[in-house]
Structures are given as C-alpha cells and as structure tokens.
Amino acid sequence: MFDNGAFSIWRQGGHLDTEGYYRWVEDWHRHPGFDWALIPDVIDGDEEENDRLLAEWPQHLEGVPVWHLHESLERFQRLTTSWRTVAIGSSGQWKTPGTGAWWKRMNQAMNAVCDEYGRPPSRLHGLRMLDPEVFSRLPLASADSTNAAVNGGSIQRFGMYVPPTAGQRAEVIANRIESSNSAAIWVAEMQAEMAF
Fold first, then answer.
1. In angstroms, rounded to a whole number, what is the distance separating the alpha carbons of residues 102 and 122?
2. Strand 85-89 versus strand 66-68 pairing type
C-alpha cells in the first residue's frame, strides 16, 4: 500500500508533488507486492477539490480514494459504490480518532453505507486507525498508523519492562496491535440526542 504523505505534508503546511507521486507509483505498480496507492487528497479541502484529484488519477493504477469525515455522507456513499476500496480520513471537527464526537460521526457514516447486515459495499481502509479500541469496532479491511514507528522511541510507554532498542519496542507495539482483529460487520450504535 503506497501512501502519498498528504497528512504529514498538510501538518507541515507544505504542498504535495502529485506528478512526482504518480511517477513513483507508476514505477512500482507492477511489483508483486503492490496492492494499491492512496489517491492524493486535500485533507481539509472541499469535495470538489478532492473529486478533481480523483479525476486526475491515472486509471491504469490501482488507486484508493479518501473520504474525509468533514465531507458529505453522500460523497461517502458515492465512493463506496464506485471504488473497490475507500480510505477513511479523520478531518475537520472529527480530526481525532476515538473521541466521542468522532464516534458519533463514524456512526453516521457507517449507517449511511452499510447494508442491513452491517456490511459496507466496498473494502474500507482506516487512516490513523490502528488503535484496537477503534479498528476492533469497525469493518475495516485494513488500517494504518505511525504508532509503532513514532512510539517505539518512547521509553516511558513501557514502564518497568523496556526492550533495549527502538526497533524491539516498535515490534512490541505492532504485536499488541496485531493481537486484535477488525470487526466483521458494523453494529450500529443507538445514540440519543440530548439537548439541555
């Protein structure tokens, strides 16, 4: 799975070199280990900007569009019925996975696309969703995160037992993640709207 780095670039205030990314994917897409590449996206952009990037994507390359939580549910429905795999990106007021507001929006999104048996129409990939408290409740085909790479360097995270190298600490984190599975189906959460 190839990632275009849009999230890191967005956080740093930079600009994604889409042409360079297309060339990179073109160079690698015939490799036997290549599954797909994330189609470039504007994380806090509007639907028109992101649809324009979808239209520019070279059709012979296996690409995955990103639906951002701040975008309309109609766009999510359109993407999941038109693409084999759709990535879900946290954005806008729902930029932090696992918060109460985030779960409320995910509940709306999953209810909008899943059938009566809790099955989405396409494969779903969760961006920044490798927290078992998150992916174990969602019918994701795959997910990614920089958790192991970033936190492998954190000695405080391990308490009394500290593996000696950052690589070993990252492996411990990855093994903890791998010990859980994503949900097989979406189970809608009944949430009451309360106004005081």
1. 21
2. parallel
Kindly report the pTM of this predicted structure: 0.86
Q: What is the pLDDT of residues 91-108, one digit of tens each?
A: 999 999 999 999 999 999
**How far apart, in whole angstroms, are the C-alpha atoms of residue 16 and residue 128?**
19
Residue found by looking up tokens 């994701």 in the block: 140
Residue 142 CA to residue 87 CA, distance in Å, equals 9
In degrees to the nearest 10, what's the CA dihedral of 10, 80, 64, 97?
40
Q: 64 CB contacts (<8 Å, ≥6 apart)?
A: 36, 37, 38, 39, 83, 85, 86, 87, 125
Distance CA 177, CA 135 (A): 10
**Residue 167 token pair:** 């690589």
**Sheet strands (E) in the chain:** 37-38, 63-64, 66-68, 85-89, 123-127, 142-144
Handedness of CA 81, 82, 83, 84 (dihedral sign): positive
Condensed to tens digits (0 to 9), the pLDDT of residues 38-47 reads: 999 988 889 9
Q: Which residues contact 120 (CB under 8 A, 6 or more apart)?
A: 80, 110, 113, 114, 139, 186
The residues spanned by each domain of the chain are 6-178
> Mind listing the pLDDT tens digit for each residue in 37-81?
999 998 888 999 999 999 999 999 999 999 999 999 999 999 999
